[in-house]
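Justification of computing resources. Each target in the renewal requires a structure prediction run like the one illustrated here; the chain below, 152 residues long, is used simply to show the kind of job we budget for.
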Amino acid sequence: MTTIHETSSAAAAELQELLTRYVDSRDGYRQAAQLVKDGGLAAALTAIADRREEISERVATIIYREGKKPEMKGSPEAKVHRWWIRLRDELADHETNAILAECLRGEKDLHRTMVSALEEGHLEPEHRLILQEVLSEIDLAIRSFKTALGET
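Resulting structure tokens:
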């Protein structure tokens, strides 16, 4: 039998994983905004990064309320991914589509993480509502990147 404490700890751990992924996403979009040459696209990527920051802060607050200390740092995997984006950008001679393709790849990974968290069953209804809200934002970003890249 699972106790309330175990459920709370599992939820906090799941939320920390989501927070880490959102910090990764925020940092990735900030980097992408610096790499693109189109001012409008840079502004759009910065807006996504800002929204990811807002969500990160909301999730960190929930973790804190669960009695845990939120870690506001990204993952080592994402640092490697951002290094890859910089390298790919250099090799592709600052090709916007290369950056957008990496943004799409990151969104798909974030989508998988969110869906997995929703399926785990450790989260409280309040947590699930936030995830469902952000999942719709991620879905929109995926569709937008696919359209920009000419994918269906």
